[in-house]
Design brief:
heterodimer, A: 131 residues, mainly alpha, 3 helical TM bundles of succinate and fumarate reductases, two-stranded antiparallel sheet, 4 helices, 72% helix, flat, B: 249 residues, alpha+beta, Ubiquitin-like (UB roll), Fumarate Reductase Iron-sulfur Protein, Chain B, domain 2, 2 domains, two-stranded antiparallel ribbon, 7 strands, elongated
Chain lengths: 131, 249
Amino acid sequence: MGDANRYPELRKRLTPGWWTANRHYAMYMVREWTSLFVALYSLIFIYGLSLWAAGSRADFLNFLKNPAIVGFSLVALVFTMYHAATWFYLLGAISPVKIGRSKTKPWQALVLNLVLLVIISYVAIWLLVLR
Amino acid sequence: MSQDIATIRVTRYRPEKDSKPYFQEYKVPYRHDMVVLDALNYIKAEMDGSLTYRWSCRMGVCGSCGANIDGEPKLTCASFLHDFKGRTITVEPMSNFPVIKDLVVDMEDFMEKLVKIKPWIIREKETPPEQGEYKQSAQELERYSQFSSCINCMLCYAACPIYGLNEKFLGPAATALAYRYIEDSRDQGKDVRFPIVHEMEGVWECTLVGECSVVCPKGVDPMLAIQKTKILGATNALRSLLMPRGGHK
């Protein structure tokens, strides 16, 4: 750094509100925050499973039917879908599949992954609850 | 040709005199074809010769004139004054770098990173020139060509909050260039570059903010290069694990 070391260093540092500077930063932060809801839902679900392990399937289902849990689950579902959609889109942007001479577009990966998500979720719900 | 007046607020900081930076305002007459860099040149030539900033080519090739214009990292030579009509234009030095004077930042850290990733073609054994050039198909060129358009303007570093938090992070442009050589069919230096890009402060620091790719004035997508480097590293590690002998390629 040479001579610059003789003077106090001036460097514009990040402030706690850096992510409000533009829309891209804000959307990034929303994406990161949504993972908190994913984590919280996972904890709730693990607790529910522990009820099933310790007692019966009815305890597990009753716990999930609690209005507060249902309400939180709906909020968590919205955020989880947003979180998943952003990653599915990025997946398509990072690893496009070559078909002949053209490459797949990110939105195609998004749609395909969302369809797979719905199918896998339905199978999981069927195995756990509906069966 | 008609002239308008642009109001420009420029960061002034002379470390030998000022304890902290301040804004100085200038009124600059401009024509429709003038950019922010033209305004800075006008200020320096006609109003205040002490204003200090970097510039060279005036056409988005040299990458020297980057600054934060209204908070966004941009090339001053590629930002038209008429786009800011009716507003005060704020010109600050690029974020995340130490400021030497006014708009001039210390590039040392980036220069070290640039050299660190070995931005040249590495061959296990050089063939003599009389044996001809190393040939490459159009498809092989396409795999890395966008990443070779980087002009080292460092706008991506100014836009990257990860670099803002941790200056040890290898960062967008250096990784994009590393990936450019990793993907080059003529290069045989993967074993040398992989440990550099995959160290703790290498690609794995990136959390996909993506602003580097948004601000790049040359259409390079450093975020993509970083993620592709992650995928290459992960598949390489898996291959080494499953096939310890000869799996590493």
